[in-house]
Design goal:
The complex is a heterodimer. Chain A is α/β, with parallel strands linked by helices. Chain A contains five helices and four strands, in the order βαβαβαβαα. Chain A has one domain: 3-Layer(aba) Sandwich (Rossmann fold), CATH 3.40.50. Chain A starts with 8 loop residues before the first strand and ends with a helix. Chain B has a four-stranded parallel sheet, with helices on both faces. A three-stranded antiparallel sheet of chain B has the order 1-6-7. The chains are: A alpha/beta, B alpha/beta.
Chain lengths: ~140, ~220
């Protein structure tokens, strides 16, 4: 087995867009890292900072929220609300010394299977570059 | 309701530095409604404190509990089962009444305020609150079109507006509306400008904080 750091990433995906895009990426047989575990949410408006905090407490190295393109939310502004919550949490994490880049917001539509695969790859690479979560590092020590 | 906001995380961290067992106590009263200290905010603060401790490699337990209210003794009593578990520090996420009541009921505990209590106000929209009352103890808003110049005029003028009012905003900030402008506009629109004319007497502040800390005793309710 390789000793390379394999991050554990939790993605909160909206059922109307990114979750369907993940389906499409699968149907298209697109390759992307296996580090991401998807949590289906009815809309990114359902995303709450506590969900991401619990993920970090449980050992996640990164968390991202993937919602509809801005202006296309099925519930009008769920994705805009999620974006603000992500920004709020990034700031809170920074204050306790956790890299704010460990939380991110992405926007895509249901038809963007290739973009889904691209996001998974991009975020996984970002987290790999950051290394293991500082919380986990201490837990393992 | 009473509007409060969470203290900066660094200040809260300084309260519990070196402590091993911490309890975060929320309140289902005003601070739940203004999203400062309800069950959800307790969860978030506790989680942040746990993450911070884990990151530093400190073995810290952070427990959570939310009381119905922290400004009534019967609900404060409920906390006894938690206090028995011997916490090194208790963070109260209520308005400042909460930590004071907790400190009085549990004098041996280390109790800290996790919120800053800001004002008595209402929600202009979700996530936006504004001060509307400063509890002067003698409400006179009926004289001013249902608006309170005591609170909402920067100088608490009884006969405004002053020269600092321009374009409907106060000279202290463009973010602060001139309440006297609103009062005058309302009277003009309703054709009741004569109600604006009488000179209001000097306000008697003895019912406010100037009379010292206040207390109400209602004999018909006292057991």
């Amino acid at each position: 087995m390789s000793d390379e750091f394999e991050p554990r990433i939790i993605a909160f995906c909206c059922q109307y867009c990114s979750y369907s895009a993940a389906d499409m990426a699968g149907s298209m047989r697109l390759q992307y890292p296996t580090n991401v575990e998807i949590v289906l949410i009815p809309c990114t408006g359902r995303f709450d900072v506590i969900l991401a905090l619990k993920a970090f407490e449980s050992g996640a190295d990164g968390v991202y929220v993937a919602g509809c393109l801005e202006g296309n939310c099925h519930f009008v502004d769920g994705n805009i609300r999620a974006k603000k919550r992500v920004a709020y949490l990034a700031n809170e994490l920074k204050k306790i010394g956790i890299e704010p880049e460990r939380i991110a917001m992405y926007n895509l539509s249901a038809s963007m299977g290739p973009r889904f695969a691209e996001i998974v790859t991009e975020f996984t690479d970002n987290i790999k570059a950051l290394g293991p979560s500082p919380v986990k590092k201490k837990l393992a020590a | 309701m009473i509007i409060a906001e969470r203290k900066p995380i660094d200040e809260i961290k300084s309260f519990i530095e070196g402590q091993k067992k911490v309890l975060v106590v929320g309140c289902r009263g005003c601070v739940t409604v203004c999203n400062a200290g309800g069950t959800k905010e307790v969860e978030i603060l506790a989680s942040l404190l746990r993450l911070d401790a884990q990151k530093e490699g400190h073995d810290v337990t952070v427990d959570e509990h939310t009381l119905e209210r922290q400004c009534d003794p019967e609900y404060i009593d409920e906390l006894v089962e938690f206090v028995d578990k011997k916490y090194d520090a208790i963070l109260s996420m209520a308005c400042s009444v909460g930590p004071q009541f907790l400190s009085r009921r549990y004098p041996k505990e280390n109790i800290f305020p996790a919120l800053n209590t800001n004002f008595i106000g209402g929600a202009l929209a979700h996530g936006i609150w504004a001060e509307h009352c400063q509890a002067c103890g003698n409400c006179i808003i009926h004289k001013f079109g249902g608006m309170c110049p005591v609170t909402r005029c920067s100088k608490s003028l009884m006969n405004g507006p002053c020269g600092g009012s321009a374009g409907g905003v106060c000279e202290i900030s463009k973010e602060v509306e001139c309440i006297w402008h609103l009062i005058a506009t309302k009277f003009m629109e309703e054709g009741k400008l004569e109600q604006f004319a009488p000179i209001q007497p000097i306000k008697d502040w003895s019912s406010s904080r100037d009379g010292g800390p206040r207390k109400i005793v209602r004999e018909e309710l006292v057991k």
